[in-house]
Write a structure and sequence with these properties.
It comes from Actinokineospora guangxiensis. Keywords: Membrane, Transmembrane, Transmembrane helix. This is Membrane-associated oxidoreductase. By secondary structure, the chain is an alpha/beta fold. It has 11 helices and 69 strands. It has a 35-stranded parallel β-sheet that branches. Helix 6 runs antiparallel to helix 7.
Length: about 750
């Protein structure tokens, strides 16, 4: 409630005040050059307390005045224009619930302004050096034109500087180069045009610099840079639940000295630890959100649940505090997990109608953009449950988060391609359960210092398990993942390529290492390329168990993996090496990576050769399978297996049986040519024929009239028995092999 202000009769006016009254009646501008005018006199003048005479056209146009006493128009209606320039108010004007035609206070200085529920029928002009040394209270005010505060200064440190909650402005808020010490509060404001805060400087360290929760801007929200200066906010910029009909532009802005972030669980262990500088949760923007072109946020940018109709631009941005990196690097070197995770971008559940662009400006010779113009993030970039209807390009970005998931995007949905080309990341990239409409392109990316488990062991540098990728997953062209890659149960529509990739190892002798560099359990794809550099084979185990692809391209480096290659139940329809190798080399690779025999890989490889018409190669593979099978049996089994291998090739080489039959036949012929036997029955007169006798003994079932006609004695008895046994074994094996050939045919 306003204090009581006494009425000054016309007879009590000073000479200066009489000049003001005369100028007011004619509407002329009067420059007092520091002359004093009492506030109650001006208030009485504006409300018709003094007679003006016939034909008066009143308007208050006053320059250089010093207003003493209280200027009180509370609840009053003023039908004349008020234009004051360079005036100084000694006491806070009271305009609460006033109804004014217009109010221009250019270059004026006031200890405050109480204007709650003020109604101005045209523009409210507080610019050209307007200075308010206390709270500028426009709560629930209505401006039917524009609110102009270009170059104004509002100072109320530690409290509210500009109070505009539920402010309604039909036009724009023009506050370019505004200087505010204290909170600028626009909570629930409704702006019919745009909000211009280009080059503004807002200061409320460790508090809220701009509080615009639930603000509705039908035009653009411009918090960007001019040619001379940039938007600077020391404190939180609060845009939670705000709605912007055009673009939200923070290009070149600097945000710092925010407040402590709320506790956010970082799965599976740890919590977020950062200071929020831009809180735009549930923000709705019909156009683009531009956090680019040198935008700097020394803390966390929160876009949880935001809806962006256009693009999200992050190229050239710097998010997070670089000082947090040193502590995380020390934790990684000591194999100690990070419990308090700094977050640079918190965009869980964000929805972007267009693209997310974080790469540098395009250059003619490099479509990935300038690496110096790409996003740099110091801390975690979170896109959990985010939806991007276009593509997302993080090519050449620099992500600093040693020992943490520096790019955390579980259940991310991207309609187009997710570009991670030439990314340099200290930390892990996590894409669990992600759905990518086109490709994930990690060509040339280098992922180092991956996340650590609670026990200090290394997690994968790229973790995309159970993801769905419509086209390709490209980890090629020098791709490096120190912690390895996990693509467990991933579905890829076309190609998965690790051509030239480097998996495993360490970046420093003291750093921890991983024992599993590629986990592709249950991976499905059309083509799988596993051609690693020959001098840099995977430095850990490779798991291809239950993976299913149409074609595989491999090379010597894959099978030289330090931890071996698990290919149990690995299904494929075609295979080739780069460079091409013989089946003998492939069998050597299998022996090297499978110290314990398993039939599945041999059967799969043989089936591929057989389906391709390479029957001979398929037989070699199956022969090796049998050889390894018997090699792991007990002594008798090994002897029996060796015998089958040498004699008939386990039935896969039936022609060997014929050779052995011929050999035994020659032995029989030679023996019986020099060892003639006596007849068993003197009543019969068989003719002694060593070739016929040897043939009759070797061939089972067939009777040529020589067997059982002679008395075998001495060594001949053993020779005949050996020929009979060999004949049965070899003939049976030869018949079995022939049956296999006929079945395959």
């Amino acid at each position: 409630m306003s204090e009581y202000v006494s009425y000054v009769p016309i007879g009590g006016l000073t000479d200066v005040e009489r000049q003001v009254l005369a100028a007011y009646g004619t509407g002329f501008r009067l420059d007092l050059d520091g002359g004093r005018v009492r506030g109650p006199v001006l208030a009485a003048m504006l409300t018709g307390a003094y007679p003006l005479g016939e034909g008066a056209m009143p308007a208050l146009r006053l320059d250089g005045a010093r207003i003493t006493g209280r200027f009180d128009l509370e609840g009053r209606t003023v039908d004349t224009v008020i234009t004051m320039r360079g005036c100084v108010f000694e006491r806070t004007p009271a305009l609460r619930m006033a109804r004014l035609v217009s109010l221009h206070l250019r270059g004026c200085t006031t200890p405050g302004l109480r204007a709650r529920n003020l109604r101005v029928s045209s523009d409210l002009v507080l610019e050209d050096g307007f200075t308010c040394k206390g709270a500028l209270d426009l709560t629930d005010a209505t401006v039917d034109g524009s609110l102009r505060m270009i170059g104004a200064a509002v100072r109320n440190p530690g409290a509210g500087a500009l109070l505009g909650a539920r402010l309604r402005v039909s036009g724009s808020v023009q506050a370019t180069s505004l200087r505010a010490e204290g909170e600028v509060r626009l909570r629930g404001a409704h702006i019919g045009g745009s909000v211009h805060l280009t080059g503004a400087r807002l200061s409320q360290p460790d508090g809220v610099a701009l509080e615009a929760t639930g603000m509705l801007v039908e035009g653009n929200l411009l918090c960007d840079a001019t040619a001379r200066t940039h938007f600077d906010a020391a404190g939180v910029v609060q845009l939670s639940g705000a709605r912007v009909g055009g673009d939200a532009v923070f290009s070149g802005a600097t945000l710092h000295d925010g407040s402590a972030a709320e506790s956010v669980l970082v799965l599976p262990h740890g919590k977020a630890a950062d200071r929020i500088v831009l809180d735009a949760d549930r923000l709705r923007v019909e156009g683009d959100v531009k956090l680019d072109a040198g935008f700097s946020a020394r803390g966390s940018v929160a876009l949880r649940g935001a809806r962006i109709g256009g693009h999200l631009l992050l190229s050239g941005a710097r998010l997070g505090d670089p000082a947090v990196v040193a502590g995380m690097s020390e934790s990684f070197a000591a194999a100690r997990p990070v419990e308090h995770v700094p977050v640079a971008l918190l965009a869980d559940g964000v929805e972007v109608g267009g693209d997310v662009e974080a790469r540098g400006a395009w250059r003619n010779h490099d479509t990935d953009g300038d690496p110096h113009g790409a996003l740099r993030a110091y801390g975690q970039v979170r896109l959990v449950d985010a939806t991007i209807h276009g593509s997302a390009s993080f090519s050449r970005t620099r992500l600093y988060g040693p020992a943490i998931d520096v790019f955390f995007a579980d259940r991310l949905t991207v309609g187009g391609t997710l570009f991670l080309r030439w990314v340099r990341a200290s930390g892990s990239v996590r894409l669990q359960n992600a759905t990518i409409g086109s490709s994930v392109d990690c060509s040339g990316a280098r992922l180092r210092k991956p996340r650590l488990r609670p026990d200090g062991s290394v997690k994968p540098s790229l973790d995309a398990r159970v993801a769905t990728i419509g086209k390709d997953l490209l980890c090629s062209r020098g791709f490096q993942a120190v912690g390895g890659v996990r693509v467990r149960l991933v579905e890829v529509g076309k190609m998965v390529s690790f051509d030239g990739a480097r998996l495993g190892g360490r970046t420093h002798p003291r750093h921890p290492v991983t024992d599993k560099v590629l986990s592709a359990y249950g991976l499905t794809a059309h083509e799988l390329v596993l051609t690693f550099p020959e001098r840099l084979p995977p430095r850990g185990s490779v798991t291809l168990t239950r993976a299913k692809v149409v074609s595989v391209t491999d090379g010597p480096a894959l099978w030289a993996a330090a931890g071996g290659v698990d290919v149990e139940d690995f299904a494929f329809e075609a295979i080739r090496a780069q460079p091409e190798v013989s089946v003998r080399t492939r069998l050597h690779w299998l022996r090297a990576v499978q110290p314990d025999f398993a039939p599945g890989p041999y059967e799969q490889l043989a089936a591929v050769y057989a389906d391709g018409g390479e029957e001979e190669l398929a037989q070699k593979v199956l022969l090796e399978r049998q050889r390894r099978r018997y090699a792991e049996l007990h002594l008798a089994g090994r002897i029996w297996g060796k015998l089958q291998h040498v004699t008939v090739g386990f039935g896969y080489r039936p022609w060997l049986a014929m050779l052995w039959l011929a050999l035994f036949w020659l032995v029989g012929v030679f023996w019986f040519s020099f060892n003639v036997m006596e007849r068993l029955d003197s009543d019969q007169n068989p003719v002694w024929n060593p070739p016929m006798l040897a043939t009759d003994l070797l061939l089972p079932i067939i009777d040529l009239g020589q067997d059982n006609k002679w008395r075998m004695v001495g060594a001949s008895q053993w020779v005949s028995g050996g020929l009979i046994a060999a004949g049965w074994i070899l003939a049976t094996t030869a018949a079995t092999g022939a049956t296999r050939v006929l079945k395959r045919s």
